[in-house]
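hey
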Protein backbone atom coordinates (compact mmCIF):
# COMPACT_ATOMS: atom_id res chain seq x y z
CA UNK A 1 0.00 0.00 0.00
CA UNK A 2 3.08 2.22 0.31
CA UNK A 3 3.32 2.63 -3.47
CA UNK A 4 -0.26 3.86 -3.58
CA UNK A 5 0.35 6.62 -1.03
CA UNK A 6 3.75 7.59 -2.47
CA UNK A 7 2.31 7.84 -5.96
CA UNK A 8 -0.80 9.63 -4.75
CA UNK A 9 1.36 12.26 -3.04
CA UNK A 10 3.47 12.65 -6.21
CA UNK A 11 0.35 12.98 -8.35
CA UNK A 12 -1.29 15.54 -6.06
CA UNK A 13 1.87 17.65 -5.87
CA UNK A 14 2.69 17.37 -9.58
CA UNK A 15 -0.75 18.49 -10.75
CA UNK A 16 -1.36 20.91 -7.87
CA UNK A 17 -4.57 19.21 -6.82
CA UNK A 18 -5.96 20.60 -3.62
CA UNK A 19 -6.41 18.11 -0.83
CA UNK A 20 -9.67 19.85 0.04
CA UNK A 21 -10.96 18.93 -3.43
CA UNK A 22 -10.23 15.23 -2.84
CA UNK A 23 -11.69 15.37 0.66
CA UNK A 24 -14.87 17.01 -0.59
CA UNK A 25 -15.29 14.62 -3.52
CA UNK A 26 -14.50 11.43 -1.58
CA UNK A 27 -16.19 12.26 1.70
CA UNK A 28 -13.09 11.10 3.59
CA UNK A 29 -12.63 13.02 6.84
CA UNK A 30 -9.92 15.70 6.64
CA UNK A 31 -7.89 14.32 9.57
CA UNK A 32 -8.10 10.78 8.24
CA UNK A 33 -6.97 11.90 4.77
CA UNK A 34 -3.99 13.69 6.34
CA UNK A 35 -3.07 10.55 8.30
CA UNK A 36 -3.32 8.47 5.12
CA UNK A 37 -1.06 10.81 3.14
CA UNK A 38 1.47 10.88 5.98
CA UNK A 39 1.35 7.06 6.30
CA UNK A 40 0.20 7.32 9.91
CA UNK A 41 -2.86 5.22 9.10
CA UNK A 42 -3.17 2.22 6.81
CA UNK A 43 -5.31 2.83 3.77
CA UNK A 44 -8.25 0.55 3.04
CA UNK A 45 -9.10 -0.77 -0.40
CA UNK A 46 -12.38 1.19 -0.33
CA UNK A 47 -10.48 4.44 0.26
CA UNK A 48 -8.02 3.66 -2.54
CA UNK A 49 -10.91 2.93 -4.88
CA UNK A 50 -12.76 6.13 -3.97
CA UNK A 51 -9.68 8.36 -4.27
CA UNK A 52 -8.66 6.80 -7.58
CA UNK A 53 -12.16 7.18 -8.98
CA UNK A 54 -12.33 10.86 -8.00
CA UNK A 55 -8.99 11.46 -9.74
CA UNK A 56 -10.16 9.62 -12.85
CA UNK A 57 -7.65 6.80 -12.49
CA UNK A 58 -7.65 3.09 -11.76
CA UNK A 59 -6.18 1.83 -8.49
CA UNK A 60 -3.45 0.09 -10.47
CA UNK A 61 -2.26 3.49 -11.74
CA UNK A 62 -1.27 4.49 -8.21
CA UNK A 63 0.15 1.03 -7.44
CA UNK A 64 2.87 1.29 -10.10
CA UNK A 65 6.42 0.83 -8.91
CA UNK A 66 7.68 3.78 -10.97
CA UNK A 67 4.94 6.31 -11.62
CA UNK A 68 5.79 8.37 -14.72
CA UNK A 69 3.99 11.70 -14.45
CA UNK A 70 5.65 13.08 -17.57
CA UNK A 71 4.35 10.43 -19.96
CA UNK A 72 2.50 11.70 -23.02
CA UNK A 73 0.60 8.50 -23.61
CA UNK A 74 -2.67 9.74 -25.08
CA UNK A 75 -5.30 7.09 -25.66
CA UNK A 76 -7.32 9.26 -28.01
CA UNK A 77 -5.37 11.87 -29.92
CA UNK A 78 -8.58 13.61 -31.00
CA UNK A 79 -9.60 14.57 -27.47
CA UNK A 80 -8.44 17.41 -25.27
CA UNK A 81 -8.55 17.28 -21.49
CA UNK A 82 -7.51 19.76 -18.87
CA UNK A 83 -8.09 20.25 -15.17
CA UNK A 84 -9.47 23.56 -13.93
CA UNK A 85 -10.94 22.48 -10.61
CA UNK A 86 -14.65 22.20 -10.00
CA UNK A 87 -16.61 23.23 -13.07
CA UNK A 88 -18.66 26.36 -12.55
CA UNK A 89 -20.42 28.47 -15.17
CA UNK A 90 -17.41 30.68 -15.95
CA UNK A 91 -15.16 27.63 -16.48
CA UNK A 92 -17.77 25.96 -18.69
CA UNK A 93 -18.01 29.15 -20.73
CA UNK A 94 -14.21 29.31 -21.03
CA UNK A 95 -14.05 25.68 -22.18
CA UNK A 96 -16.78 26.31 -24.77
CA UNK A 97 -14.92 29.39 -26.02
CA UNK A 98 -11.71 27.39 -26.37
CA UNK A 99 -13.48 24.71 -28.42
CA UNK A 100 -15.21 27.35 -30.57
CA UNK A 101 -11.83 28.97 -31.18
CA UNK A 102 -10.31 25.64 -32.23
CA UNK A 103 -13.20 24.98 -34.60
CA UNK A 104 -12.69 28.42 -36.18
CA UNK A 105 -8.99 27.77 -36.66
CA UNK A 106 -9.80 24.45 -38.30
CA UNK A 107 -12.27 26.16 -40.65
CA UNK A 108 -9.77 28.89 -41.55
CA UNK A 109 -7.06 26.34 -42.30
CA UNK A 110 -9.51 24.40 -44.46
CA UNK A 111 -10.39 27.54 -46.45
CA UNK A 112 -6.70 28.41 -46.81
CA UNK A 113 -5.97 24.96 -48.21
CA UNK A 114 -8.91 25.24 -50.62
CA UNK A 115 -7.75 28.68 -51.83
CA UNK A 116 -4.23 27.37 -52.48
CA UNK A 117 -5.64 24.42 -54.42
CA UNK A 118 -7.95 26.66 -56.47
CA UNK A 119 -5.09 29.09 -57.17
CA UNK A 120 -2.94 26.24 -58.48
CA UNK A 121 -5.76 25.02 -60.72
CA UNK A 122 -6.21 28.51 -62.20
CA UNK A 123 -2.46 28.71 -62.91
CA UNK A 124 -2.67 25.38 -64.74
CA UNK A 125 -4.99 27.00 -67.32
CA UNK A 126 -2.53 29.83 -67.95
CA UNK A 127 -4.88 32.51 -66.70
Amino acid sequence: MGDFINNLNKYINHYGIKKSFIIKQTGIEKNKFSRLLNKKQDILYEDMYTISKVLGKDISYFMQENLDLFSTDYKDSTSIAFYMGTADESKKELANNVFDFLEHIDAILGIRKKLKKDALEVLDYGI
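The helical segments are 2-15, 19-26, 30-37, 45-54, 59-62, 89-124. The two ends are 74 Å apart (CA to CA).
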